[in-house]
Amino acid sequence: MTDRHALIQADRGQNAIAIHLVTKDSLAEWTKRLSAGQRAAIAAQKFEGAGYEHAIVPDGDGWFAVAGVADPSALSSWCLARLADVLPGGTYRLAEHETGRALFGWVSGQYRFDRYRSEAKDEEPRILLTKDARAIDPALREAGAVELVRDLVNTPAEDMGPAELEAVAAALAKAHGGRHGAELHVTKGDALEQDYPMVHMVGRAAGRAHAPRMIELEWGDPAHPRVAIVGKGICFDSGGLDIKPSGAMLLMKKDMGGGAHALALARLVMEHGLAVRLHCLVAAAENAVSGNAFRPGDVLRSRAGITVEVGNTDAEGRLVLGDALARAGEKAPALVIDFATLTGAARVAVGPDLPALFAREDATAHALIEAGAACDDPCWRLPLWDGYREYLKSDVADLGNNSTNGFAGASVGALFLDRFVPAGTDWAHFDTYAWRPAGKPGRPKGGDALGLRAAWHMLKARYGA
């Protein structure tokens, strides 16, 4: 793909093709300024001013575009995203309106994952000019973070295992050195068995080629509030001995989507220099099947000292996150946010477009929901209902890792995680899908960031630069 930094540029009067924005209601009045031939051209393309529609209009020796939007004065992230995908390559500017949030979608709409295509398209970029030069860098960084999530999730497990996630974290640490710079610490092997026993148990069956690890990155002034960002990094989930059917296993390269979100959010925090002491943790493992795979009925030790009876080896993500959240809590963070492709129940509850949000503090939940609504990354809060804690009771251990009654699966998964976050800690959990089953303008089918931008805008509002 073309370097995204070329896709939006400051408007300094360059030659550019005009884009006019109309609504269904304003189209008739707007066309009165056009010639009969231009009106005929619009009619021939059956353009009616609906959202995501566009038409090419001849204009002397050149042409301009007209596009339908809901409200030209308040563009969403996605209003121009389809144009960025379907217009011919070239340079464009909005004729009468400001670009606003649509800068992000203009870049996002030109995302391509072509790593494995032998004949990838070499497309001429569509460049959008904007009068708001200060908005360019934030929009590019935000689009770049989403692109990082998409790339990591779309990459097959053979090329995106625990070692490759570690390499991504190492590259971030290298890019953000200097005073109070990023430091990377990785625990694996025998030390992992001692320090993060549930991560070790979940990942040991994958062998040395895909050995599990706890990836930790710290950055920022230690005097600033500590913010922990935690991600589930199950690089492939076979289900373990409770093996998934083949159809359910097909998309399990995306089970590290939570880790991808955590790394992308950490990058945004460092790029913008938020006034926080960042602690990013990714529990990376592959849930495989072999002679030393953990078994239903096993009782696992955890870093927190809580013992866990395994009722289902396919509920492994909460196990590795339990160790990661316990580690994060040891340093008394002001806020913990975790991302995980944790439960199918969340998808049943809110579908593929909305990450399920759980939070201890109402103020934090409201801040995340409002931030998501403002940046077109909506999330939906589900309950941490104390009455469901009994579903995790075990006859032989402190806690079971799953419920057998089929009720409130997303809440039960979140309540399991809640046991590993120290009491009184401000904590939010995103049960995200990390995948688009069908493409939309600016949001192609495949891996995607869901909840990332909501969390980023909330952090930016709370901690500033």
Automatic annotation (TrEMBL):
<keyword id="KW-0464">Manganese</keyword>
<dbReference type="InterPro" id="IPR000819">
    <property type="entry name" value="Peptidase_M17_C"/>
</dbReference>
<dbReference type="Pfam" id="PF00883">
    <property type="entry name" value="Peptidase_M17"/>
</dbReference>
<protein>
    <submittedName>
        <fullName>Leucyl aminopeptidase family protein</fullName>
    </submittedName>
</protein>
<feature type="domain" description="Cytosol aminopeptidase">
    <location>
        <begin position="312"/>
        <end position="319"/>
    </location>
</feature>
<dbReference type="InterPro" id="IPR011356">
    <property type="entry name" value="Leucine_aapep/pepB"/>
</dbReference>
<dbReference type="InterPro" id="IPR048816">
    <property type="entry name" value="Peptidase_M17_N_1"/>
</dbReference>
<dbReference type="Pfam" id="PF21337">
    <property type="entry name" value="Peptidase_M17_N_1"/>
</dbReference>
<keyword id="KW-0645">Protease</keyword>
<keyword id="KW-0031">Aminopeptidase</keyword>
<dbReference type="InterPro" id="IPR043472">
    <property type="entry name" value="Macro_dom-like"/>
</dbReference>
<dbReference type="GO" id="GO:0004177">
    <property type="term" value="F:aminopeptidase activity"/>
</dbReference>
<comment type="similarity">
    <text>Belongs to the peptidase M17 family.</text>
</comment>
<keyword id="KW-0378">Hydrolase</keyword>
